[in-house]
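tmp note - GRF-type domain-containing protein
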Amino acid sequence: MSQDSSVSSLSMVKCQCGIATRIFTAFTPTNAGRRFYKCSKPNGYKCDYWKWVDDPLHSRVANLIHNFP
Ligand SMILES: [Zn+2]
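out:
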């Protein structure tokens, strides 16, 4: 087994197939730990859709820090 990603859960985001994508975590050196949506179909059937997960919590925390006196 050689995988560069791990499956965590189904997301609310849909791919080009119109079905729910899965959230994967990247393990590449440049994007380690970064999560992305990808088609949940098996290899050979999946579409090319993928998208980084923009963590809303992260931007909220950044905003809080920015507004801190
Ligand atoms: Zn798809």
